[in-house]
Amino acid sequence: MRIDALDKSGLRSPLQRFLKLILRDKAGLFGVILFGFIIVVAVLAPYVAPHDPVQQNLRISRQPPAWHEDGSWEHPLGTDNLGRDMLSRIIYGSRVSLTVGFLGVVIASSIGLLLGMVAGYVGGRTDNIIMGVANLFLAIPYLLLVVVVAAVLGRSLLNVILIFGFTNAPLFVRITRGEVLRIRKSGYVESAIGLGASQARILFDHILPNLIGPLLTVATFEMSGMIFYEAGLGFLGLSVPPGIPSWGNMLAAGRQYIQFSPWIAAFPGLAIVCTSLSMNLLGDWLRDLLDPKIRRSAS
Question: Which CATH fold would you assign to the domain 25-44+55-292?
Answer without folding.
Answer: MetI-like fold (1.10.3720)
